[in-house]
Amino acid sequence: EGFRETFGAVHVDTLNCMVSLAMVLRDRGRLGEAEALLREGLSGRRELFGDAHLSTLSVMRSLAVLLDSMGQEEDAIAAYREVCACAINLLGIGHPQTLTV
Known about the structure:
By secondary structure, the protein is an all-alpha fold. Helices cover 79% and strands 0% of the residues.
């Protein structure tokens, strides 16, 4: 909350903090909270950077992995498809990061 108050909700430092906290929550098994923060962080990155940015792509992939680990198969598949499409558009089909999605 301190970052939001200081920098605002859609600031790179606030968004980085959100994603970092989401990863800690995920590691502690608090998956629902992690999902909410990743979704909020993704929304902010889209607003700040757009879809065609590596930072946005990274959070999209983290959300897809989390959804998969939560057993939300349909949502995970949709998220992975979006990650693949964005990676191909941003990096190209043969880029190593695209191939690891």
